[in-house]
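Quick one before lunch.
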Amino acid sequence: TTYKQPYRPQYHFSTRANWINDPNGLVYYDGEYHLFYQYNPFDSHWGHMTWGHAISRDLVHWQELPPAIAEEGSTMIYSGSCVVDKANTSGFGQAGQTPMVAIYTGAQPDKQSQHIAYSLDKGRTWTKYAGNPVIDLNRKDFRDPKVFWYEPTQNWVMVVLLPTDRKALFYKSTNLKNWVKGGEFTATDTPATVWECPDLVEVPVDGTMERKWVLLLSMGNNAPAGGSGMQYYVGRFNGSTFINESKSGDLRYVDWGKDYYAAITYNNLPRRGNRGAISIGWMNNLQYANDIPTTPFRGTMTLPRELRLAKVQDPMVRYELRQQPIQELKPLLGTSFQWTGTDVAQLNESLASNNLTGDTYCLQLELEADKTGVGVRVKKEEALPGKGEETVIGYDPAKQQLYVDRSRSGQIAFKKEFSGRFTAPLKPQNGRISLQIWVDRSSVEVFGNNGEVTLTNQIFPKPNSRGIEFFGSGLRSVLIRSVEPIWK
Ligand code: FRU
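Model of the beta-D-fructofuranose complex:
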């Protein structure tokens, strides 16, 4: 019964009970993908921040373990990252053991500083370093360290924020304990007044031998859909600072929906060809995260995504993020409904006669971007035709916009900022738009044109609002596959 509640995500990670926010310490080690996260062990609202812990062998099926790093006195354990210290640079390893080292913000009411802890048993138990904090600037706001190993100079690199200054600071270290300040990055074109949870990651560029560095930043406010969201810059890293190559004012957003925050990427992934980075985000918005109507848990992670870059000539060369759900999700895809044609009424009839009104599924649509709007209504309340609940995903050819409208998606009144229609700019490719839409009990993640844009949104429909209905004249093909639950 643990994972059976009406709004319980069936193939996204959530905890059995209580509050979660940011994913922390994403790292692969010895057959296990670790997912740590901001967790309140006592309540389903934010507080007592502790690193909760889950592991997976495939990035899809998760097992929740006991909390990993607990608050101590008035010091809460805020967001951060985790590395596998193979060469035992930290000296925490004993008798040939490889330490896992967590680097996080120790948050006191009037000060935030960077701390470390280590584990010698694959992340099950942790010891806080006696010499904490390892970086202390005596600042009230100084948080969210992301650490990675930098091959060219054989040292650790940290990117960490002065959130209210919207400034990223870079540090380096040979032992994870002593840190030397490198450069800084700030951007005058950001609409956000606060940055959180940075990540700096090298990403392959499709169709080339190139790799570029992407600086991911969570925006505390003024994101395109309102409230919190994420932006990124593309450029170089010289070992001590990030050099932005994105044009100033040419803002790039990671996601155009309302619920995509604090995403960071995995450290120490097994090398597999030219695979991109893998990220997980928190599917929520700071405007209402404490108010969403779920119980006994509050907070969900997004699907893991593979991040790549595309080199776009438009008319100048520019690098744009491309995001796709990871391949590992494929085994969850089950029975399918397939259709090609032009007659939407006929499509809706054959869908109805197939009785395909699932709870969790993945839709793959090919649309012709003609003059009329086109799209699909999901989680439709059949009892009240034209009036009941529905979440609308569509394409507006006149405006060249992809949209998700959740203004009638179910429960929306718990916070006025929740309701709305959210758009992303998207141009047809050879006259076509392709959409991949992942529907779970309480979310809809849309990937447009193979991950050119994404829109991630929570929804809270009634359990029996299960209809699927297509509209407009541009539909050309439809594939619907059920998605198996990941929980037993
Ligand atoms: C982002 C954030 C981080 C902080 C953590 C505290 O959601 O505010 O900046 O480390 O959450 O829970």
